Amino acid sequence: MATVWVVEQGEYSDYRVVGVFTTEARAKAVADMVNGPERAYDASVSEWPLDPGSEDLEMGRSMYLVRMLRDGTIDCCVSRRRHRPSVLKTISGSGG
């Protein structure tokens, strides 16, 4: 599976994605530029999968939304109907 490199900064409500890059070197260069003494949170680099879940949908699997309460009780479980294969191929196969 292809991946992208994401520069992230902050925590909780102050969290943000600074940028998404095709190489780890580019992401690290931007993170180094963003990091400085005036920043409360240093920027970090993470590897994220590109198009997560698309292979599962193309294989006919469904997605589910599950909402869990703090005590671990399941509050809601809803099946998300999978996309039509032709639509998925158009979306995942687009060149730009």
Structure characterization notes:
This protein is α+β, with helices and mostly antiparallel strands and about 100 residues long. The protein folds into 2 domains: about 45 residues, no CATH class; about 40 residues, no CATH class. The chain is built from 3 helices and 5 strands, in the order ββαβαββα. The strands form 2 sheets. It has a 3-stranded antiparallel β-sheet with strand order 2-1-3, covered by helices on one side. Strands 4-5 form a two-stranded antiparallel ribbon. A hairpin with a 6-residue loop joins strand 1 and strand 2. The protein is flat, with a radius of gyration of 18 Å.
Which terms would index this structure?
96 residues, alpha+beta, 2 domains, three-stranded antiparallel beta sheet, two-stranded antiparallel sheet, 33% strand, disordered C terminus
How is this structure best summarized?
The chain is α+β, with helices and mostly antiparallel strands and 96 residues long. It has 3 helices and 5 strands.
